[in-house]
Design a protein that fits this description.
Distance between the termini: 60 Å
Helix content: 55-70%
Number of helices: 8
Radius of gyration: 23 Å
Strand content: under 5%
Order of helices and strands: HHHHHHHH
Structural class: mainly alpha
C-alpha cells in the first residue's frame, strides 16, 4: 500500500513561464530604437563603409577593378569590418543594423565591389579560418596568400596578417567613438 511504487507521481518540470521570442525581439527593438542605439549602429556601418570607399589612406578601393590584389584587400577589409562589428556592438540587433548599412552603402556606392565581396570565396575562407582557429587573426595571412594565388609566400602571408591587424585597428578606432546607451 505505501510501497516504493511512484508510477503515479508527476514531475513538475520547468515552471518558468515560456518567453515569447517575438515579444522579446519587439521589446529589444523598441528599447534600442528609443535609446538611439539603432541610429548609432547604422552610423557606425556608414562610417566603416566610407573608410573602405575613400580613395586616400590605405586606399584598397582606389584601383579595385583593375588590381586583383586591391580587390582582395577590399574583401579582407569587409571581413574585418564584420568581425569588428560583431565584437564591439552591444547585441545582435545593433550588429544587424550596422552590417546592413555597411553592405547597403557598398551596394549603392560601389555595386561591382559589393558583388565581388558577395561572390568571393575569399570571404568564406577567412570566415572558416576564423571559426576554426582560436578566434584571433592566426591563419588569415595564409588565406590571404592563397587568395592572391601565391600560397606559401611568407611575405604575402605577413602582409595579410599586417593588413588584418591594420584594418581591425582602423575599424576599432571608429567603433570605439560610438557611445551606445545601456
Amino acid at each position: 500500500m505505501y510501497g516504493n511504487d511512484d508510477s503515479d507521481m508527476k514531475i513538475a518540470g520547468n515552471l518558468a513561464p515560456e518567453v515569447d521570442e517575438s515579444e522579446a525581439a519587439a521589446r529589444l527593438y523598441h528599447h534600442e530604437k528609443e535609446n538611439g542605439n539603432l541610429a548609432k549602429a547604422q552610423e557606425a556601418g556608414s562610417v566603416l563603409a566610407s573608410v573602405l570607399l575613400r580613395t586616400e589612406g590605405f586606399s584598397c578601393f582606389l584601383n579595385w577593378e583593375e588590381d586583383f590584389a586591391a580587390r582582395n584587400r577590399c574583401i579582407l577589409f569587409a571581413f574585418v569590418a564584420d568581425q569588428a562589428i560583431a565584437t564591439f556592438l552591444p547585441n545582435h540587433l545593433t550588429r544587424q543594423f550596422a552590417e546592413s548599412r555597411f553592405y547597403g552603402e557598398l551596394r549603392d556606392n560601389a555595386p561591382g565591389l559589393y558583388e565581388s565581396i558577395s561572390r568571393s570565396a575569399a570571404y568564406s575562407m577567412y570566415l572558416i579560418c576564423k571559426r576554426s582557429g582560436d578566434g584571433r587573426r592566426i591563419g588569415i595571412g595564409k588565406i590571404y596568400a592563397k587568395v592572391l594565388r601565391h600560397p606559401e609566400d611568407a611575405a604575402l602571408e605577413r602582409e595579410g596578417e599586417l593588413l588584418y591587424e591594420s584594418f581591425y585597428n582602423i575599424c576599432i578606432e571608429h567603433l570605439r567613438r560610438v557611445e551606445f546607451a545601456v
